[in-house]
Design a protein that fits this description.
2 domains; signal; alpha/beta; globular; Phosphate ABC transporter substrate-binding protein; single chain; PBP_domain; 40% helix; D-Maltodextrin-Binding Protein, domain 2; Phosphate_ABC_transporter
């Protein structure tokens, strides 16, 4: 009889731990609604300035606290799948395997497109040429000689910009010796401003909403107009070119919510896709998914 009791102790302990865990989870849900509570938001660091602005307005409007954690894309997905947070802002949608992971947890990912972004190519002011062809960039990534490019500079080896460019070039990874990577977009801007012949690959958001640390360096760089593969014309990363679909390094941005309940993930996604959120996108220099309306006030008389 004592042996049976002894064997049952681990079972009861497991049940107790599970019960406490469920209670804690339920308590978290009860404290959090779509406009109230506290949560962590994982964000692709290439678009950090935009989401910082969005969070500031959201928190000023509602009784909510959103803690932003900006990481490289690979680091983001590791944290997302480990349940560091179930809300993430990415420049891509979930892969088939990532979607299956959440299906096994009986969670249906809620995906909301919030903007169209641009990856900008920048050079030093000393480089007179402000045009660059993607065929030359691709050739450099593949290790071909004969291009004017001395080096390509990325913010992080695990960045979404690296994935975007390697996919465009048809490569699985970048190993060419002329390709450099740092730890942030700020370091890319600084390095290019101090070294001619280098081409920086950066989220355009950092150029349109620069931090105090990089404002002075921006005076020493050019934002290049890019010729797409098999194209004849060059286009700059402007809102108009994003809207017309002519800029070759455009990408869509998404907020993906896998909380599995009606929490701040749902509320913040609605805010980003709503009137105020889309106006913030428009002001940032990116292209809103839904163009905010303009109210026209008609006066009966002119003073």
């Amino acid at each position: 009889m004592k042996k049976i009791k002894f064997l049952l102790y681990p079972f009861f302990f497991f049940v107790a731990v599970l019960f406490v865990s469920c209670k804690q989870s339920e308590a978290k849900k009860s404290k959090e609604t779509i406009i109230k509570g506290k949560t962590v938001l994982l964000v692709d660091e290439t678009i950090k300035p935009l989401i910082e602005d969005q969070i500031a307005v959201f928190e000023n409007t509602y009784d909510a606290k959103i803690i932003l954690e900006a990481k490289s894309e690979k680091e983001l997905m590791q944290a997302f799948l480990k349940d560091t947070s179930r809300i993430v802002v990415l420049s891509r949608q979930l892969s088939v395997d990532e979607a299956k992971f959440f299906e096994q947890l009986n969670i249906k990912p809620r995906v909301t497109k919030i903007a169209t972004d641009a990856i900008a190519l920048i050079s030093n002011k000393k480089d007179a040429d402000t045009l660059i062809a993607m065929k030359d960039v691709v050739a450099f990534l593949k290790g071909s000689a004969g291009t004017k490019i001395k080096g390509l500079v990325f913010d992080n080896p695990n960045s979404s910009t690296v994935r975007f460019m390697t996919t465009l070039a048809g490569l699985k990874e970048v190993s060419h010796k002329g390709v450099y990577s740092f730890k942030s977009n700020e370091e890319v801007v600084k390095f290019v401003s101090e070294n001619d012949g280098m081409i920086g690959v950066i989220g355009v958001n950092w150029l349109l909403q620069p931090t105090v640390n990089i404002k002075d360096y921006l005076t020493n760089i050019n934002v290049l107009s890019v010729q797409g593969l098999n194209k004849n014309s060059y286009f700059a990363p402007t809102q108009n070119n994003l809207a017309e679909g002519t800029y070759p390094l455009a990408r869509d941005l998404f907020i993906i919510n896998c909380q599995g309940y009606s929490g701040l993930g749902m509320g913040f996604a609605s805010f980003l896709a709503g009137e105020i959120g889309q106006r913030i996108v428009l002001k940032s220099g990116m292209l809103p998914t839904k163009m905010p309306g303009r109210k026209i006030l008609i006066k009966s008389r002119i003073k």
